[in-house]
Amino acid sequence: MAPSKTTLSNWDPVLLVSQIVSMQTLHYLTLSIIIPPLLATFADPTSLAYEGGAANIGMIMDWREMAGRPTVRGMQSGEMWWAWSGGKKIGYGWQEDQWNGRIDPMRGWIIAACWILACSADIYYIYKLIRRPRLILDFALTLVFNHLVLTTYYSSSLPTSLFFWLVLLGGATLTIIIAEQLCVKREMSEGLSVMSVRPEDQHVEEMEMGGLLPRID
Questions:
Q1: How much is the pTM?
Q2: What angle do CA 72, 74, 77 make, to 5 degrees?
Q3: SS3 assignment, position 75
Q4: In 3D, which of 59, 63, 60 has the Cα closest to residue 51?
Q5: Which of 70, 67, 95 has its CA nearest to residue 80?
Q6: Beta bridge partners of 87
Q7: Who contacts 106 (Cβ-Cβ below 8 Å, separation ≥6)?
Q8: Cα distance between residue 120 and residue 111, in whole Å
């Protein structure tokens, strides 16, 4: 008896894992390209320096940066504001060129805009790598889930910012809707496309069909 076919015949875990890793890598690579120059241009340089600079990995992996939450612990002492990070005193804020303890709201908006731009780039990545419309939702949500796990581990805290959740869900929705439409259109165009018939082939076909038709005298 021939073995019966199952729905798992096309299951390829190596391909699946490689696609997930590729999507996550391309997403973070896009963020690492666009976030540093925008932060260096528009964000407050003093507070940015206390967060590790524009190229700090925390600008991508720490949800508090997007949410506008402090990632260094400040403690006011007299007229000075001491900044602590990792259990070490890293500076104080009584001079004009030192951090005064306030959070730069522009930094969160810049990171959020960069996340949306990266999600727009994900549309192209999914269109080229995933291709099948029925898998787009799974891969888009998997990317968001993986980022939630990584940012929770990096910051040692669960994301509690409504703004952060709205940006993530908005970016995922944008990616899913547009990528699905593009992939469906491609499948429809590929399914409806037919090979062009050469003139000589068309003549032979007419001769064969003519031999099958009854003659009318």
A1: 0.73
A2: 160
A3: strand
A4: 59
A5: 95
A6: none
A7: 42, 43, 44
A8: 14
Q: Which tokens go with 82?
A: 């001491």
- What is the tens place of the pLDDT at every residue in 91-111? 555 454 555 557 788 999 999
Give tens-digit pLDDT for 26-46. 999 999 999 999 999 998 888
Closest by CA position to 10, among listed 123, 126, 134: 134
| Rounded alpha-carbon distances, angstroms, from residue 163 to 38, 65, 109, 147, 155 | 20, 11, 10, 16, 17
Other residues' Cβ atoms within 10 Å of the Cβ of residue 93: 21
Q: When comparing pLDDT for 77 and 165, which is higher?
A: 165
Residues in the chain: 217
Inter-axis angle of helices 105-129 and 136-155, nearest 10: 140
Positions of E strands within the chain: 73-77, 80-85, 88-92
